[in-house]
Design a protein that fits this description.
Tet_transcr_reg_TetR-rel_C_sf; transcription regulation; Tetracycline Repressor, domain 2; single chain
């Protein structure tokens, strides 16, 4: 009688361990599938950002996005209903990268972080990096032609970017600092667009240098 009870207890214990392991394995597989799905979505978004920056929204199709993301067109539609929806997600992602980048400069470069940020932004390496550069000069023109949802996604992060720049400016007049922040950001992005549009690198450098001086001058206004 004692042995029988012990046998039943051992069986029940073994079964519990097996069940726990099976559940753990199922959860792991679910997490793995979710992670893979998120990675695929991320690749599609990144491919959309790079494609629009390089070819413009009108010059980019779903097949090209899918090919760049290394997925099928069917897989693309498993994540997004249309190119427009993918562009909305891409715009938000690109602008979030801008906000994250500004946050990084603010948090790691000290109180005068805006000066090295301006230098980096207008440096030739960033100006030449059309696909990997800032979303502002790369996506703004196409966003301006897009639907309201894209405008909203763009605007929400643009406002956050201006808040970060405002926090890096000297003085106590918040409203004036905010206006200066808008001026600085528009000066930087506009200069990058123009410098990329001209053929002569000497002219491109002159544009960048003039914008750099203007942006730094704006920082001194109180």
């Amino acid at each position: 009688m004692v042995n029988k009870k012990i046998t039943i207890t051992i069986f029940t214990s073994d079964y519990s361990v097996f069940t726990i392991l099976r559940i753990a394995e199922e959860r792991y597989m679910q997490m793995k599938q979710t992670s893979k799905k998120e990675q695929t979505r991320k690749r599609i978004i990144e491919a959309t950002i790079e494609g629009v920056k390089q070819h413009g929204y009108g010059g980019l199709g779903v097949d090209a996005i899918a090919k760049s993301a290394k997925v099928t067109s069917g897989a693309f539609y498993g994540h997004f209903k249309s190119k427009k929806e993918a562009f909305e997600a891409a715009t938000l992602s690109g602008m979030v990268d801008l906000v994250d980048g500004l946050s990084y400069w603010r948090d790691t470069k000290g109180d005068s972080w805006l000066v090295p940020f301006i230098d980096w932004y207008l440096d030739i390496e960033h100006r030449k990096d059309i696909c990997g550069g800032c979303a502002l000069p790369g996506l703004s023109v196409d966003v301006s032609r897009s639907e309201k949802e894209v405008h909203v996604a763009y605007e929400s992060q643009l406002v956050q970017a201006v808040k970060i720049i405002t926090s890096g400016l000297p003085g106590s007049n918040t409203n004036k600092k905010k206006k200066i922040a808008w001026s600085i950001l528009s000066t930087l992005s506009g200069a990058v667009i123009m410098s990329r549009a001209v053929d002569d690198e000497k002219i491109a450098s002159e544009i960048a240098e003039a914008a750099k001086q203007k942006a730094k001058y704006l920082m001194t206004e109180k």
